[in-house]
Amino acid sequence: MWAVAALAPAGRAPASDTPLVWVVELDGAITPATASFVHDALRRAPEAQATLVVLRIDTPGGLDTAMRDIIRDILASRLPVVTFVAPHGARAASAGTYILYASHVAAMSPGTTLGAATPVQIGIAPPGPSPAPEGGKKPARTTEDSLAAKQVNDAAAYIRGLAQLRHRNVEWAERAVREGASLSASEALDAKVVDLVADDVADLLRKMDGRVVRIGVTEARVTTAGARIGSIEPNWRTRVLSIIANPAVALILMMLGTYGLLFELMYPGTAVPGVIGAICLILAFFGFQYLPVNYAGLALLILGIALIGAEAFLPSFGVIGVGGIVAFVLGGVLLFDRQTPGAGVSLGLVVALALTSAAVVLGLVGMAARARGRPIVSGRETLIGAVGELIEADGLQGYAEIMGERWRVASDVPLSRNTQVRVIAIDGLVARVQPGAPPPVDRSKGD
Prior knowledge:
disordered N terminus, disordered C terminus, 447 residues, 5-stranded mixed β-barrel
């Protein structure tokens, strides 16, 4: 579907009859990849001679840092930005509400909702009514309560400033943060939270035609009658970032990296596992820097992996390894807040990775048990009972070649050159021997 959009100063005719409207699709959680996508779109739109950018949004919320990056780009945009909550049944919850308030024009499709913008932080519960203490005394304020209150106050001030900038309902914006309030499309229009309700992008552009928007200190009239609509796809960097900054992928990369390095340490010189492991670890920590990581969970995760690795070098028949699995599971559960959209790791994935680690530990324990039951194949102990040939003999002493090595030998009986001797003990660097080879094995027995 094609149409034309034009933007001109208020009271003037459009400068061009064939400008372009860009529609940017934002589906799912607001993540660093989303912020990178929006930044790239708003940067490239003027270069493509687009005159209007529509963010079609359907999100449960996301990361605070990514949301603020998007809002900064909207506020700095040289083009009017319309946030459109669509299609029917979509929502702009949490971070989506802030983005909608920051846009030059806010619109919703029938059957959509917005709100529930109370911030959530790892390890900090949202503020709520405290139980009444005995005696009517005011309850003591805990550190967690203070941190949560500061966070909510900061978020409320932030969205209040956006509402004042765009002349939208300030009171409801604060309620959305402090009380988690939500609105339907018609209610949001009545409450002056949004500017338009439209069925789809084409209907939105029809209703946008002639609207005056303020960009910085300049007022401009948007002409969208018969406008043509274009879209933009994420570039390769955004696609890669969206994969790496996924908490589940980052956790899996960390596991692969650790086991790759562990394999390299166990079998030096293989090279490939070590190289792949190092790359995976670097990518994992690159992803972690974009995510709200709980450092206590990360420390438990690293401790768990270290203990599992230690099982390979300090066989304890599973004791160290089991401790590593427990630490790994606890670290995986605490690493990210599963209640924050786009930042959680499913418990099933943590359990699956823990079972994989358990399989590794069981394999290491089995290898240690089998190695313990095997006969000794190297070291001085293998010389006991070995047969060698005397190279030099001088009475009770001499030199013999035993298992390919030259040993000084001693005996209680005189030794003769070029005769066979059998090792009966090792005394320092001297092998004590007896003349003669061990008796031949009677292979006829049992036949």
